[in-house]
């Protein structure tokens, strides 16, 4: 099954089509996992209705696939799910900003992927486009609705704080390559949550590490 197989299906019936369910269920089969990730990721980017449908299934993916993969160190599954979940959020940041339980299941799952102690940064890097698009969307709320933007920022403060902590921890392992990533996220966090002094210490730590590395 390829994404092109869905081209002849009317958009109105795509979300409930048996073919979509077949591809989703194929994630649980190791031999078809990679192809299922590829097809689903492409569908998410092509069809506006798909992110909403799949967001409701993220909890299932986390419990059935992601958590066992994290426990066993299966980087293939972790990497694939990180890319797929990031694409769901990136395609529809407004859905995530609604702060539904499903939205926080997705952010929690991605934070788990970022925190996974992989030897390289490929998994963490694959999620950064989502985090930046979500932060940009939340910042854009300031223009349209002040009070709503404030409430959204409060709800997502723990998420971005945890993201900054995870990236800062990872940067200590591979600092010379990825400190700039943590720096970008730090600035996003301070811009989103300027009144939260809890974020100042991670940024100070990062700056200190950067100076020490330069002086070596």
Automatic annotation (TrEMBL):
GO terms for cellular component: cytoplasm. Keywords: Membrane, Transmembrane, Transmembrane helix. It comes from the Eukaryota. The chain crosses the membrane at residues 175-193, 199-215. One of its GO terms (biological process) is protein import into nucleus. InterPro entries: ARM-like, Importin_beta-like_NTR, TPR_TNPO3_IPO13_2nd. This is Uncharacterized protein LOC104236973. It comes from Nicotiana sylvestris.
């Amino acid at each position: 099954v390829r994404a092109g197989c869905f081209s002849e299906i009317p958009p109105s019936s795509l979300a409930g089509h048996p073919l979509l369910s077949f591809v989703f269920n194929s994630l649980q089969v190791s031999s078809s996992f990679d192809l299922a990730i590829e097809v689903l990721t492409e569908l998410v980017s092509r069809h506006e209705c798909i992110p909403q449908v799949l967001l409701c299934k993220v909890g299932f993916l986390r419990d059935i696939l992601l958590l066992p993969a994290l426990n066993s160190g299966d980087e293939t599954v972790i990497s694939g799910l990180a890319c797929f979940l990031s694409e769901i959020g990136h395609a529809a940041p407004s859905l995530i900003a609604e702060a539904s339980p499903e939205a926080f299941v997705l952010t929690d799952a991605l934070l788990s992927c970022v925190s996974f102690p992989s030897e390289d940064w490929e998994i963490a890097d694959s999620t950064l486009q989502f985090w930046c698009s979500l932060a940009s969307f939340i910042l854009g709320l300031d223009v349209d609705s002040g009070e709503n933007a404030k409430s959204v920022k409060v709800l997502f403060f723990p998420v971005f704080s945890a993201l900054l902590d995870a990236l800062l921890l990872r940067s200590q392992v591979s600092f010379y390559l990825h400190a700039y990533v943590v720096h970008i996220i730090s600035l996003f966090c301070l811009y989103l949550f300027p009144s939260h002094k809890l974020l100042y210490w991670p940024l100070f730590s990062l700056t200190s590490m950067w100076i020490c590395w330069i002086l070596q």
